[in-house]
Amino acid sequence: MKVIKSKVCCQSGKVKIQAIQCRPETNFAFPGVIILHGIEGFKAHHEEFGERIAKEGYVTLIPQWFGGETEGKNPDEVELNDIFSIVESLRSSKYVDKSRIGLIGFSLGAALALIFASSNKDIKALILYYPPADREKITQFFKKIRISSDFIENILSPTLIIQGDNDRIVPIESACKLLQEFKRYNKLCEMRVYPDADHAFNWPDRGEYNADAAKKAWRDMIEFLNRCLKK
């Protein structure tokens, strides 16, 4: 499936958040997926990841939610309204089915996705790659976002946690604790664990790259997206 890529701008107050949109080259409306990078900032591999998902029949939006070409925001300056603006930018596209929106986050971007999903009932699929789960630590990064102690209770979307069992930055124990929090509130949450996989194991240009785990995680992610957004 051929993919069309374009640069878009998400306006959030006085801040312009630059993003890349990838969509199939047809005039049909597809489910939309937002991809939130981690603390390393926007990289070429995030754009490539979005393009691959678009080839599966999705419209993806990859915002540079801090760093990159954004106008002066760091993680501790990010507000929930920034993410609402990004979601509305995606939903405003005529190529997007507004009722089928998914959210994928990597590391710190996964923490931000968690927080946002607890505040927005329109998210129909939530995928978290090696997500930090300690609320106190998350709060240290997002100082302008109020995070309640029971924010997991407010998440309505089915959730998939993708985690390596050899993660030296976000230990697997953290992911297991997050899974138990979802279960405590009777939420739909699944976790896939990949042997010998470290943090950021899915990026080919990282030293932690694990080809076998990356392939399996991709397959699990696409299956989950299709199940939540296409059926």
What is the CATH homologous superfamily assignment?
A: Alpha/Beta hydrolase fold, catalytic domain
Mean pLDDT: 92
* Proportion of residues in helical segments: 25-40%
| CATH level-two architecture | 3-Layer(aba) Sandwich
**Residue runs with pLDDT of under 50 for 5 or more positions:** none
Number of domain modules: 1
SS strand fraction: 25-35%
Structural class: alpha/beta
Give the beta-strand count: 8
Would you tell me which CATH topology applies?
A: Rossmann fold
Question: How would you describe what is shown here?
Answer:
The protein is an alpha/beta fold and 231 residues long. The protein has one domain: Rossmann fold. Helices cover 31% and strands 27% of the residues. The chain has an eight-stranded mixed beta sheet, with helices on both faces. The radius of gyration is 16 Å and the shape is globular. The two termini are 20 Å apart. The mean pLDDT is 92.
Task: Give a summary of the structure in a few sentences.
31% of the residues lie in helices and 27% in strands. The protein has six helices and eight strands, in the order E-E-E-H-E-H-E-H-E-H-E-H-E-H. The two termini are 20 Å apart.
